[in-house]
Specification:
The protein is of the alpha/beta class. The chain has a single domain (9-197, 250-256), classed as Rossmann fold, CATH 3.40.50.150. Helix content is 45%, strand content 18%. α3 links the parallel β1 (45-49) and β2. α6 (159-168) runs antiparallel to α10.
Length: 259
């Protein structure tokens, strides 16, 4: 990952205004429910990759009844926000937030029962390495359940996709469903399931763009800065284009370590 800060406080405040307190990607707790369809969380040890400001980790510990959640991220601003959230909710005994360096997870093998992530592993370029590490830290019977931003193919991205990624200015490392499936299989996972969420988010993103450009625009510009909001509108316009093409295809990815 880049050494530049991806999510400073301005970005955090803006994204939370769109997607809800603590959420830096779309869908909120309803999307968390869908990602975790068929996944046992209660009384389990959870690794939350890219925990952001801690909203999902808190949900897993409270509403889902996890025994313990370990949230990891690579940036100080989001880790600090996550720690503050966990402390304010009185969850410090059930949730740990760990700032990590990119690379292998700093945990022993079989440390967790579930590996979870909401729209964060796009920042990890080595999908095969990610799959191997997820498999390693899971115990027998452990489950992998994430959502992430995917590209529909392994060829050169279209001009529209290249323009969108450039506009985002983030270290996106998009991979295709075929690449993810191959990485999961090679790591040893079974019961691999990939669910395309393009149709859902194409509609949601179009509504978000309309909201950004509508009567809320002046207030958003006052709160976040006119140049910043103009930039976000440009990003969302390009995002809607690649979603409509089907090239940008958010997915849910689930799998299991049988032994």
């Amino acid at each position: 990952m880049s050494e530049d800060i991806l999510y400073n406080q301005q970005h955090i405040d803006f994204l939370e205004e769109i997607w809800g307190d603590g959420f830096l990607s779309p869908g909120g707790r309803d999307e968390v429910d869908r990602v975790l369809s068929g996944v046992q969380i209660e009384d389990r040890r959870i690794l939350d990759i890219g925990c952001g400001t801690g909203a999902c980790a808190a949900l897993l510990a409270t509403e889902y009844g996890a025994a313990h959640v370990t949230g990891i991220d690579v940036e100080d601003p989001v880790c600090e926000a996550a720690v503050k959230r966990i402390e304010n909710k009185g969850l410090s005994d059930k949730v740990s937030v760990v700032k990590v360096e990119p690379g292998p997870f700093p945990f022993a093998s079989a440390s967790f029962d579930v590996v979870f992530s909401k729209d964060s592993i796009i920042h990890i370029p080595d999908k095969h390495g990610l799959a191997r590490e997820a498999y390693r830290v899971l115990g027998a019977g452990g489950q992998f359940a994430v959502s992430d931003w995917l590209i529909s193919h392994d060829d050169t991205p279209s001009k529209q996709m290249a323009d969108y990624v450039k506009a985002e200015g983030l270290d996106f490392a998009m991979a295709s469903p075929l690449t993810y499936e191959a990485a999961m299989q090679k790591a040893g996972f079974s019961n691999i399931e990939l669910v395309n969420r393009n149709h859902w988010y194409a509609k949601v993103a179009a509504k978000e763009l309309k909201w950004l450009m509508g009567t809320n625009r002046s207030g958003l510009s006052l709160r976040h800065g006119k140049d910043f909001i103009d930039e976000q509108i440009d990003i969302w316009t390009k995002l809607v284009d690649v979603l409509e093409l089907g090239e940008h295809c958010p997915h849910h990815i689930r799998a299991q370590k049988l032994k």
